[in-house]
């Protein structure tokens, strides 16, 4: 097996990120990436197998770490006493999401790729995966706290799916609009209050925050 030339792997990733950001996954060209990286398309195939493998090498570590962090937040909160869960749900959720904003901004280009350049790859459902996780743990919260799943206000699975999808898409607008980190945190904090207040109104719950 031929020895791989030092630095080529990193150059390919750098040039691929630029190409994917400019053109999206579908229109990105391996020939252009190879030329910019001063290598051959064959060297890309040897290292990454194919175009999706190259895209995955850029975004998958970030997407999986973000999912893992979100899951840790959910599992930690679900381990609390039911009274604590009911009392602290708004603050805990808001604080956790602000922490996630820092992670997003530490990997800003990768999130741009995940959100707007991943069509045609297995990563196009990134937001859907986050929504599914939030839905699952919301039902657990409702069960743990004895809150009503479908009160007169009408919280159904379909409606909540719409709410959570709008929430995450709203949060990721900070990336799409290129907001700076501090403005993004203010925006996301406001989104959290808006979403949480609406959720409590529909499930018929009151906390110290809403009384």
Helix count, per DSSP? 9
Mean pLDDT: 88
Main pleated-sheet profile = none
Strand content: under 5%
Q: Summarize the helix and strand pattern as letters.
A: HHHHHHHHH
Backbone structural class: mainly alpha
Shape: elongated
Q: What distance separates the N and C termini?
A: 69 Å
Q: Which stretches are low in confidence, meaning pLDDT under 50 for 5 or more residues running?
A: 207-211
Number of strands: 0
Alpha carbon gyration radius: 21 Å
In helices, the fraction of residues equals over 70%
Could you please describe the fold and organization of this structure?
The chain has 211 residues and is mainly α. The chain contains 9 helices and no strands. It has helices at residues 8-27, 30-36, 41-48, 51-78, 82-106, 108-116, 126-145, 157-176, 181-203. Helix 4 packs across helix 6 and helix 4 runs parallel beside helix 7 (126-145). The longest helix is centred in the N-terminal third of the chain and has 28 residues, at 51-78. The radius of gyration is 21 Å and the shape is elongated. The model is unreliable at 207-211 (pLDDT under 50).
